[in-house]
Structure formats: C-alpha cells, structure tokens
Amino acid sequence: MPDPALEREHLAKAECDIAEGERRITSQMLLIERMRRDGHDTSEAEKLLRTLRETLAAWQAHREAILLELERHNALRSR
Predict the structure, then answer these.
(1) Residue 47 CB neighbours (<10 A)
(2) Closest C-alpha to 57, from 14, 9, 2
(3) N or C: at which end does the chain have fewer Cβ atoms within 10 angstroms?
(4) What is the pLDDT of residues 24-73, one digit of tens each?
(5) Which residue from 21, 26, 9, 25 is spatially nearest to 60, judged by alpha carbons?
C-alpha cells in the first residue's frame, strides 16, 4: 500500500506543476497573439502550445490518479 504522506507530497508537487503549466500556456497564447498581430509565422509557437497543453493534461491525469489513491487509502482506513 502506498504511503499516504508521500502521496500528499506528490499531490502538492502535481498542483504546483499544473499551476506552472497553466501559466506557461497563458504566456504562450499571449505570445502567439502578439506574433500574429505583428505578422509573424506562428506555426512553431503553436506546436509548442500543443505540447504544453498535452503536458498539462498528463499532469492533470497524474493528479487525478494521486487523488484516487488517497481516496482508496481513506476508504480502507474508515472500515
């Protein structure tokens, strides 16, 4: 059985990663808007944005897995 204290540490890390990922996505979206407005090619910036979004989705899925594990642990404790 996983250690709940360790899982809570992982959850805190996941929350920080997600917040940072959201900041990066916002920043990249703003950059793309500026690039478009200034007439620049945005194809590479858009590729990076897709990668950032995919990474964020993976981090969110990881957070959900941690939360499920903590719920399982709490359910077993309450029996």
Answers:
(1) 10
(2) 14
(3) C
(4) 999 999 999 999 999 999 999 999 999 999 999 999 999 999 999 999 99
(5) 21
